Amino acid sequence: MENTQTENRNAWVFGFSPQAEIWNGRLAMIGFLAVLLTELISSQGVLHFWGIL
Predict the structure, then answer these.
(1) What is the overall mean pLDDT for the chain?
(2) Can you tell me the distance from the alpha carbon of 36 to that of 11, in angstroms, rounded to the nearest whole number?
(3) Which stretches within 1-53 are classed as H helix?
(4) 31: domain range?
(5) Does residue 38 lie in a domain region?
(6) Which residues cross the membrane (predicted)?
(7) What is the pTM of this model?
(8) Residue 30 counted as domain residue
(9) Which of 24, 39, 43, 48 is 20 to 30 A (C-alpha) from 4?
(10) Of the candidates 33, 6, 9, the residue with the CA atom closest to the CA atom of residue 23
């Protein structure tokens, strides 16, 4: 069965929608990668890097 109504999964849709969840997941993955790289490069945790702890 083919869906006759095409839906753009990459569209920037505001509110609770499948597209918003996809973008939320993508941005969370980017943030997680940034934290890991910060810890690997600086040899300290992110909170120590920012001077919070």
Answers:
(1) 84
(2) 28
(3) 18-42, 46-50
(4) 18-50
(5) yes
(6) 27-50
(7) 0.66
(8) yes
(9) 24
(10) 9
